[in-house]
Amino acid sequence: MIELSMENELTLENADTADDEFQPAKDLIASFIIALKNYALYPEDNEILQKSVDNVATRLNEFFVNHGDFRFHVKGGQILFRDQVVHEGEHDVGNMAFILFRDGIRWVEFKKGIELPEVSDFFKLMNQNRETFEESEGDLVTTLWEAQFPHVNYEASDVFLEKETVVDFFNLRVTDPDQCGREQDEERETPEKFFAVSEANTALWTLSPDEIDELRKMVLADQNRDTTGEVLDVVMAVLKENIDENDFQDALGFLREELRGLLSRMEFQMGIELLRGLNKIYASCKTDRPWAIPALNRFFKEISGHEVLNALEEMWPALETLDSHRRLLWQLLVLLPSEAILAIGPMSLKVSSLSVQAELLKVIEVLAGRDMGRFESLLKGADKALVEKLVPVLKDLKGERPSEILLTLVHNSSERIRRRALDTLIARDYRFLKEVFSLIEDPSDPIRMLMFKYLGQNRNELAEGLLLDYLDKQQFQRNDEHHLLACYSALGRCGSGRSIPLLRKALLSKGWVPGFKRSRHRRGAVMALKTLRLDEANDLLDKSSRSLCLFVRIAYRKAMGMNR
Prior knowledge:
By secondary structure, this protein is mainly alpha-helical. It has helices at residues 19-41, 47-67, 96-102, 116-128, 140-147, 159-162, 177-187, 192-200, 209-223, 228-240, 245-264, 268-288, 293-303, 306-309, 316-319, 323-333, 341-348, 354-370, 372-381, 384-390, 401-409, 415-428, 445-455, 461-473, 481-494, 500-508, 515-532, 535-545, 550-563; strands at 2-4, 70-75, 78-81, 84-88, 105-110, 152-156. A hairpin with a 2-residue loop joins strand 3 (78-81) and strand 4. The longest helix is centred in the first third of the chain and has 23 residues, at 19-41. The protein starts with a strand and ends with a helix.
């Protein structure tokens, strides 16, 4: 039903709005806005779009049961319910109120009995008439009249008649009837005279080539204008309103898909602003709307999973050369909860760029610092290649747990993981050398050599004490010659005067070890004494070079030859 009106003022009913009607009306309009936004963003068979329209139909019927038919008025960029503003937006095609008001619709009423297909068709027509009638095939009033919705009434006024008439009084003059008659005769003359005048003044309206080119650029810029930011602002504003749970969840579902799109287009700055805004909403909901926290938790879990973050996988080659984008991506990812580790970790294996890998490992380090449990879950379920890549993340993490994990990994079955874990643990805290000292007998030659490197990297009482105790108590076999000499060499690099008594005993004592092993200990002792560079050590070396015992002199010459 169409009711045409020439009135300039809104006739609103029931000026005093009851509280129990106003909030449901406001929630209902919020669901309208979400549905219209979804129509602009998704195809008609999209699940998010269908859910938002279904939500409108459900809310309408709930309103009918409690409050009767639903009528709202439109004024400029505002939607009013019983003379109170329930929504206000900018004067553009993204604002439902503006679309209605622009085409002359002053109020819309939904009547009891409306069903989902009619609701869906209404929003479909609204979306088709977003643009002005110059840009589309018609206007909203005409389209609604043709649709003949049985449960949708509205009032439309003529927007042209509403505009004020401007009169040029300067050109008004009094004329006699004969003069009027001559003017009318002139108006009935053939158009040749008019065209002759018009063609003589074409320079006034003809565009130059430069002006045409500039106009084309302006049109293209308007057509290609990205309204994503505006849409996100609207949805974020809706989330801040006191909407109910269904609308809240619909808005979050929309934002989840939008965030994935932002990642796929590398629009990271917009994604950062979106996540920061949602984190603020989360903080406010803890006190204002605790019922929203579970929905927000589900949302953050979903955007931290592979289904959303895998949108980045095609971006890795481009990010290799875009330093600023890599930094923005880092800022975005660290805004996610720690659960994102479970998706980011496996993704890092697919990255060939070392710079991108480094950024992802920094992200994992930040997230692991918040929740070591998530990081441990990733390590337990990951293949060996990923574990090896993740081990260095533990180096700078706070607390005792990272060291405990590394102590477990130094005994991993993979040689590469053991070596990486050993490197990381010693870099984290050299005092853990005692816990990993047993690796000097690791079956892997590279790991044993790495242990000797750490033991002898500087003068250190801890390393010296470990080696002295080991050399004094360990029963070496005949085939342990290289291992034994490596122990003495490391002792010479880390030791002090504290090592002199054991080295003197190894070099000069006759009964310390069986004869066939004694020569190796003597050579090792000479090597260590030479490396100590202490006066007492040099005196002992000089004495051994002139010893009456032939085997001591032979050990000295062999060891000194090895040192050359």
